[in-house]
Amino acid sequence: MEDKNCHMRMFNISSIHDLIANSMNILEPAPEDSDGNQHEDGLAFDKSGRRLGRGGGYYDTFLLKYQALASERWWKQPLLVALSYSRQILDGGVIPMTPHDVLVDALVTSCGVIPISKTALEQM
Question: Which domain of life is it from (predicted)?
């Protein structure tokens, strides 16, 4: 997340030094952005591909822009995969959805991959 206006950027991690160890000794990007704002995790997913975050629309805005760019440049649409703890996954259809929400194609947990979309099922 770049700012509070739903702007996100992907970063090329070119060195292990671009990451820091979290409390579980797992390497990840720094917990704060360049303005010192804390990054917040998502809250839940369901088996229909819906995501429940913090309501800022950061991921939806970023993903919609990327999907539009992929269409414009005739690229293959990306497979949208979310990493999640098993306890964050609810039964399908329980998370509310708005018209601008973007569904994920698959969920990955420590227990394995949960394919959701037809595309994800075809690629497994």
Answer: Eukaryota
